[in-house]
Each structure stands twice: as C-alpha cells, then as structure tokens.
Design a protein that fits this description.
This protein has 14 helices and four strands. It has 364 residues and is mainly α. Pfam families: RBP_receptor.
C-alpha cells in the first residue's frame, strides 16, 4: 500500500527541494553581495588577520601528517598494508597530537553540520536517496514509499517471467501451426477435432500418472516403482528412477543409435499419398531395416522406433484421426505403438521431453 504514495511523494519532495535550493542560492548570492560593502570588508579583513594563527596551525598539521607518513611507514610492505616502522615513537607523537587535533575537531564538527545541511537541501528532491543515516531510514517516509514501489514493479516486471513470456511469443511466431492471424492479433485455433484432443489429453494424463490407470479400469494393474536406481543393458547404464523396471533399456541406449547407419525419418507432410499409406510403407521399411541389422530385442525395437520417428508422432495421431483413415483414436495409437505395449507410453513422453530440451539447447 505504501507504494501507491510514491508518485505524490515524489512531486511533493520535488517542490520542496526546488524551494530550498532557491532559498540556498538566494542566501549565497546575498552573502556575496554583503562582501562588496565596506563595513563587511573591514570586518572580514580583521578576522583574517586574527585568524592567521589558525591558518598556520592547519598548514603545520597537514605537513606533519605527510612527514609522519614517510617516517613511520615500513616501505617493505605494500601501500594497502598498515605497517609502522617505530611503534614507540608513533605512540609518543599520537599523545601530543591530541592537543593539536582538539581545536581542529571542533571546527571540523561545525563544517560537518554545514555540509550536511547543504547536501540535505540539494538531495531533498532525490527521493531514491534517504537523507537519514543507516538505521534510521525507516523514519524517511518518502524513501520507504520508493522502496515499496520498487517491490511492486519487481513483482509485475519479474525478469524471469518476462523472459518466459518472450520465449512463448517467439515460439508462436516461429511455429505458426495452429495459429490463425486476424488483423494484428494472433488467436489460438485448434485444427483437429475436440474428441481427438480430449483423447490426447487423456493419454498424456495416464502416461504422466500411470497409477491412475488402475482407478480408471480395474482390470489394469498400475506399474510398480523400480527397486533399483539404475539398470545395466550391455555396456550402457540407464537411470530408471521413477519408471518401471521393464523400461530400463529405453532411448538412452545412445551407443546403439550412434553405431547404426542413418535411416530416413517418417514424412508427415507428403501429399502424394495418404498418411496411413505412408505410415504402413515406412513401418515395413523399418522392420526390414531391423531384420538387416539383426535386431530382435523388443525393447531395442521400441527405442529405435521412437528414435527415428521423433516428435512427428503427435502429427501422425492428429492426421490419422482427422482424415478418417483411422476409425478411432485408439486404432491410431495401436498403429504407432505396435512395437511396444501401452503401459510403456511414459517412455515416449520422456523421449519427447528430452528431444524438446535438446532442440532448445541447439537453438540457443
């Protein structure tokens, strides 16, 4: 609530600062005008004649400090180190210096008060600088209003939040899929049916929360957590953590993927044939590819399938469902996941997450 008073306090402090600075300048020019008068000039000259002793003492003190610095400082150390060459002589001089520094301290205190008044008058319009010393800044209501206003600005202009929103805007501009332009506005528009969208969200929910499968269908047993933190598959150690024990040799088998020759990915945007025909043709080529490489393990088949098809699996789900080439959504899923069981859909979600994270790092 104090941040609401910042703008009014700023205007009030600025007006008072303007008045005080104007008065200070007027007083300064008035003093300069008085010095032009003969009686004032005579008074100043007489004071300077009597104050010659103070001037001599000030000059003597300044020279003494410079001489003491040269005599008592140990030059074997750097300038940043406090080093005294003769401590006994230093203590004796510090005792007698007390009587010389006493009148100097008195006049220094007067100058300190005058400097504080001048700086305080000049800095009064600056509400971001408190005229109070440390420990008493809570008494400065204008400075507190400024601090509260900064907290409000930080809450609504958080740099992390702004960067996140900018990333969303950039992603929308670079990938205009499912976005329709209406004048200067960009409105999100779904390009597939509501039923397929709802089924896809259901599949995501069950994949990310496999324990809900048993609540939805009593005959489906929820996966049990792994008993170990990792599993070894050949020369590759796979972290399984929260995944099931039968998901141990998933897509992290990078040694196998790097040793295989390149295989053409599935093309979703080819208009020569339908998506279903292209999918059947691609899966046949993929099965022949596995036979040629003598890969018979079902887990490795599943890992390589997801490795080569990539994130285009979501596009296959949409296209097969919307074009009517698949009679229902479940059949489209079965056509894609024929190499692995539906209980392992969480593997595919993990793969999509890692692929997106790798794509983001390469993009940066």
């Amino acid at each position: 609530g104090k941040g609401l008073r910042y703008h009014s306090y700023q205007i009030g402090y600025f007006l008072w600062g303007y008045i005080l600075v104007l008065l200070l300048l007027s007083f300064t020019f008035f003093v300069i005008y008085l010095l032009s008068l003969d009686p004032v000039q005579d008074l100043v000259v007489n004071y300077m004649k009597r104050g010659g002793v103070y001037l001599i003492v000030a000059i003597f003190s300044w020279l003494s400090l410079r001489i003491i610095t040269v005599i008592f400082r140990d030059n074997s150390y750097s300038k940043d180190v406090i080093s005294i060459n003769n401590r006994n002589a230093y203590m004796v001089i510090s005792y007698f210096w007390f009587f010389i520094g006493l009148p100097m301290g008195f006049f220094s205190a007067v100058l300190r008060i005058l400097k504080a008044m001048a700086v305080g008058a000049l800095m009064l319009p600056r509400i971001d600088h408190s005229v109070m010393p440390d420990g008493f800044q809570r008494l400065d209501r204008g400075f507190n209003a400024y601090i509260c206003y900064l907290h409000v600005e930080t809450a609504y202009r958080n740099p992390v939040l702004r960067v996140f929103c900018q990333m969303l805007v950039d992603e929308t501009q670079n990938n205009p899929r499912n976005v329709q332009t209406l004048g200067m506005n960009r409105v999100r528009k779904w390009t597939f049916s509501a039923q397929s969208r709802a089924r896809w969200f259901l599949a995501l929910t069950l994949a990310r929360n496999p324990q809900l499968a048993s609540d939805r269908k009593p005959d489906v047993q929820a996966p049990q957590p792994a008993q170990a933190g990792h599993a070894r598959y050949g020369d590759v150690v796979v972290e399984i953590d929260q995944f099931c024990a039968d998901n141990t040799a998933f897509i992290q088998d990078n040694a196998l993927a790097s040793a295989l020759p390149p295989f053409p990915p599935f093309n979703v945007d080819d208009d020569a044939t339908t998506t279903g025909q292209r999918w059947d043709k691609w899966t046949k080529r993929f099965n022949n590819f596995l036979l040629a490489m003598n890969i018979t393990d079902a887990t490795r088949k599943r890992a390589l399938l997801l490795h080569y098809i990539g994130p285009s699996a979501f596009d296959i789900f949409e296209t097969l469902t919307d074009t009517g080439e698949a009679k229902d959504y479940d059949k489209a899923i079965d056509r894609l996941t024929e190499h692995f069981t539906p209980q392992r859909n969480i593997d595919y979600e993990t793969y999509l997450f890692r692929q997106a994270r790798q794509h983001y790092r390469l993009k940066r």
